[in-house]
Amino acid sequence: MSALVHRSFGDPAEVLAVEERPLPQPGPGQVRVRMLLSPIHNHDLMTIRGEYGFKPELPAPAGTEALGVVDALGEGVDRLAVGQRVAGGAFGVWAEYYLADAAGLIPVPEGLPDEAAAQLVQMPFSAVSLLHRLDLQEGDWLIQNAANGAVGRMVAQLAAVRGLNVVGLVRRAAGVDELREQGIERVVATDDDGWRERVAAITGGAPIRVGVDSVGGSASGDLASVLGDGGALVIFGAMASGRVEVATSDILFRGVTVRGFWGSAVGKELSPETRAQLFGELFARVTDGTLTLPVDSVHPLAEARAAVEASGRPGRVGKVLLRGA
């Protein structure tokens, strides 16, 4: 079977290559899945560069989320059936076939499109888990940067259904229009010197309880500066910098706290009942159109370089997907 593999850490467009590998055989509790579609996430590319919290042994496969069809069952698997569509996470899904723990796979309901189901588990589940973890109350205010990124859009859409107020920050004015076209309002471009005043006008002076930072660097400090006293800055990602730059005065005199959110770790802490409840919320929101999961482009495994380049294109709207067997 064909699989994307990298034999060194580096630029994914340069080090990823298609190789032929033996068809994997599922062990106890595992299933073999025929991959249909798999999104390219930032953390996938960081892993290939050797910059993520998980560093695989080389030569390494790649990809962590996919939609597929169950192709073979390992011993003891009775909750899934051959031919069933499933979504979920496993390492090395950028291949025609991959192995996954049966317990971690999510059966995909009829009527849910493949392109939406392929993206459902990691980013949307991280977004809904984040909102669950923040424990905000209806009417509370939240601010986030990278509001026109995939997670930013999801947080805004899911938060609105929960009755939360969200202000989004983008780095350019064009991002405001992009989000407005998707029905997402209350967006401010930080290339305007008066952006803090615009945020205050939107909230009407109400305290902002939480800031979600997906950028890092000075952008972290920008978020902290507009939080209410005692607010929390939650580090979700680090698109621009591996450092968090927050003014000492915000922490010392205004009681702003800083903490991290790593979806992979938080997901493991959730009870099965809570996981089921949150996935049920996602299924409902995708089905009724409240949560939109746009796709930028779809590429076969053999076009990995083009797919990676498309994923890094500024202003991209929607995920780039790899197509399997």
TrEMBL record:
<keyword id="KW-0275">Fatty acid biosynthesis</keyword>
<feature type="domain" description="Enoyl reductase (ER)">
    <location>
        <begin position="11"/>
        <end position="322"/>
    </location>
</feature>
<dbReference type="InterPro" id="IPR011032">
    <property type="entry name" value="GroES-like_sf"/>
</dbReference>
<keyword id="KW-0276">Fatty acid metabolism</keyword>
<dbReference type="InterPro" id="IPR051034">
    <property type="entry name" value="Mito_Enoyl-ACP_Reductase"/>
</dbReference>
<dbReference type="InterPro" id="IPR013154">
    <property type="entry name" value="ADH-like_N"/>
</dbReference>
<dbReference type="Pfam" id="PF08240">
    <property type="entry name" value="ADH_N"/>
</dbReference>
<comment type="similarity">
    <text>Belongs to the zinc-containing alcohol dehydrogenase family. Quinone oxidoreductase subfamily.</text>
</comment>
<keyword id="KW-0560">Oxidoreductase</keyword>
<dbReference type="InterPro" id="IPR013149">
    <property type="entry name" value="ADH-like_C"/>
</dbReference>
<protein>
    <recommendedName>
        <fullName>enoyl-[acyl-carrier-protein] reductase</fullName>
        <ecNumber>1.3.1.104</ecNumber>
    </recommendedName>
</protein>
<dbReference type="InterPro" id="IPR020843">
    <property type="entry name" value="ER"/>
</dbReference>
<keyword id="KW-0521">NADP</keyword>
<dbReference type="InterPro" id="IPR036291">
    <property type="entry name" value="NAD(P)-bd_dom_sf"/>
</dbReference>
<dbReference type="Pfam" id="PF00107">
    <property type="entry name" value="ADH_zinc_N"/>
</dbReference>
<keyword id="KW-0444">Lipid biosynthesis</keyword>
<keyword id="KW-0443">Lipid metabolism</keyword>
<keyword id="KW-0809">Transit peptide</keyword>
